[in-house]
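User: quick one, fold this
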Amino acid sequence: MNAAVLFPDPIAQTTHEAPPGTISMREAVLFLQRNKRVMFAVLVAVMIFTVVFVLSQTPLYTATTTLEINVNPEKVIDFQSVTSSIDADEDQIISELDIIQSRPLAEKIIKQLDLEHDAEFNPRPWFFQRLFNWLYKNNAAAEQAISAQEHERILERFQKRLTAKRKPKSYIIEIAFTSRSPEKARRIADAVAEGYIASQLENKFSAMHDANNWLSRKLTDLQANLTASERKVQKFKEQNHLLENAGMMVTQQQFSELNSQLILARAAVAQAQAKLQNAKISPDSTPEVLNSYLIQLLRNQEAELLRKKADLSTRYGPKHPSMININAQVADLDHKIRSEIAKIIKSLETEVSVASDREAALAKNLQMLQGETGQDSRASVQLAELVREMDANRTLYESFLTRFKQTSEGNGDEQPDARIVSQAETPRTPSYPRMELVFPIALIMGMFLAVLTAVALEALDNSFRSGHALEQDIHLPIVGMLPELADKKMLHESSVAYIESLKSAYISMGLRKGNVPQVMLISSSIPGEGKTFFSYSFARMLAKSGKKILLIDADLKRSQLSQRLLRDKCDHGLNDVINGDVMVKKVMMKDETFSLDFIPCRPGTGDSQELLVSAAMKALITRMRQAYDHIILDTAPLMAVSDGLVIAKLADMCLFLVRWGHTPRQVVKTAMQSLLPAGTPISLLVTRIDTKKLSAYDAGAAGYYYEECKNYSG
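Assistant:
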């Protein structure tokens, strides 16, 4: 069976991954799981703050009085022009809301209910304020200034607690007032509504009274103007001897009638001339000819003779007496018809002549009358101007007189444009703070802040906590994930999970390449990522499985592996072998328990790069390849020194270790970028994993099951 089928490539298993830019349900659950403590702490803190805030607040009560605005008041007499009612316009309703919350109405209610001496609106001043008032109590101006300031503060507090709003799609206005006392809130809300209605009536009474006085004075002036204009008209008529008939001057009336008759006469002449011209051009089609009874009779006789002539022509020739006789009769009838047509044309000519004579007579009479009426027309123009002035004065006077009668008769009958629908009830529960809203909102805000805090903490975490995230950022495969060990001095029975992870990494490398690389370079970005411990434990695991293993400490700067394995000072090491000072057999150490060979090195070598890149080092690795199944090179961190970069070309694979939840992402990327030019295949290992926390970051990782399987020794 193909091993690749049993151990599929984890990088290739991306079929069920969520699309880029989306968060799957599994990721959301993991996010909540790993941040549940922080989120719970933030939520509890918000709820505690809310409880403290609510307990520290003074409860306030809101009472509401309902008004209805009457936009179409019923009136026996229309006073709208004097005391206009409220229109059904949105802007007008808004204006009424502003009036309810206006300063004058507020001052009236404050004075009416004596709120200036109410501790809620005018609290007792502080000690220093009372001292200041006592020092200047003999200064009247100072007392007046302080009183004005107190009045402004009282007014400001009152207006802040008063609200008026309109119910949507209706003419209902709700007047609400908020106070510490439920009874006081009810009393003030009702007082504002009643004061608003009373102010409407006062404004209407005042407007009606002012209108009556003004109309009375205006009527006296208009009546005098009308009398003077009437006298001017009458005097002008008498001076110019102007007579009227049905409201029009006699000469003008005659001139108008003659002008109308002349227009009709000219139309008659044009019509008669048109008939005559048509009769001369086409006499047979003239209406007068077609409608002539005599001509119709002659036409019928002519048709009868023509029928007979056609009948005779079938039997006789043109010289037959019968044919000659019938032709003579036809000619005689045609002559008669032409004679009648000529008479009709003559009558039309006579009609044209008569119409022309009448037109000329009317034009002559009109010209004579025009001369006579010239002087009267000029006088009529002046008279018309005087009459227009008189009519305007009369119309204005009658309009004001009607308005005066309406206002006089309706004075005292005004009705307000609003009525109280329901008076305020004493509130039983406080409107502030509202428990039914405060705690749900606090809960929502607490949850939001909890999630926001968790997101911020994760955004600040710049390390890798998921194998999937590491593969996505580095674009290299992960061959294993190693848990953190409590005791790193030795591998014992409790480290079964760690040993199994080493075996899994070994198998994964073999599955990827077809066979496990012989020379493996172990490297990392920075110190502390478990590189040295992994090199030793990995070599021991391979040696225990029966393979011949060589472990080389290639960290010529610090030699951490040599210092941990050799408690005594190392006299000779890899440095001396490369320089040719000693033989490999002299420095090589053997672990008889695991059949593991180890080449140490002395720390503090200055020219480490030159030694590692030398031909001697290359020859050493080539010679060791023939004697061992696997060679493990433990090198220095890449971000510390460049030893690992120069020796990477001697290895078949580089195992790059990344510490879980510790190594910054950018550091890992920078180290990987420096290692890529060597051309050595690279595989990733995640080390020092907190198995208890891993399940909250990557449920698909093998380490997720460490806790469940740590006692399994199978």
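User: anything notable?
Assistant: The CA atoms of residues 272 and 614 lie 138 Å apart.
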